[in-house]
Amino acid sequence: MELLQLRYFLTAARYQHMTQAADALRIAQPALSQSIKRLEQELGVSLFDREKRRIRLNDAGRFLQQTLTPVMAALDSLPSAVREQAAQTARTIRISHPAASSLVTEGVLEYRRLHPEACFRLRKNTCAEQPDDLCVCAPCPGSFAGEGSRFLLKETFFLAAASGSPYAALPCVPLEDVKHEDFIILSDDEPARGAFLRFCREAGFSPHIACECGDPESAQRLIAAGLGVSLWPIHSWGAPRQPGLALLPVSRPDCRRDIVLICRPAENGALSEDFCRFLTSYAAQRETVL
Known about the structure:
This protein has nine helices and eleven strands. By secondary structure, it is α/β, with parallel strands linked by helices. The strands form three sheets. Strands 3, 4, 5, 6, 9, 10 and 11 form a seven-stranded mixed sheet that branches.
């Protein structure tokens, strides 16, 4: 069966008159009759009862008409749907953010305020999992971030403790002073975990991890309840919203890591590049504020 044959059939079924259907299709009536005849031969059934010059759909014809109508409607709408999908892709920026999730979210909100036509797809995954247009990550010290990488900022890790703890009243805390404390970390944030363990090694101890949780909100509640302390990456986990939790500067070692933006070639190159420039500027402003 050919698509044109099926369109001819539906028109003939609508008019149930070969001459009128041929006029609507702007083809010769014999050509339409031959097309319908070939379709019936291919299907092995008659689709119309023929009465002199008139035709009438039989049961097989009505079944085919009912089945074909939504299919042809879907096919007719396909070109516009494909164009819309292409347009959606052209205005969508795909970002993976295994680090600095809070910074990325704030940057997207601000960019959308300025450019409401832009769309985003955000994923908290690793860059190697499936390349997106942009990736915000924290490469290990001394490692190569990759082609197209741009430095965004230095992310500071604060010591997070309950506001009622003896640390809360101090202006800053050497990390070695909390080596006997229980620690709370996120189970699904491998980049932050790697930096956390590195800072502890530099301070001369191996931390006792009392609890692993799935998100910063849960970590905040556990820390505020006095179940342990944590090292808090401010641009990844955001500012604490839980009452009873304090963030304290760590005096030593230097608990900071580089956050970089990796820009990859994309179909929406101009839009992605514009957002890269915006996020770079936005990150510099955020680093100055903190």
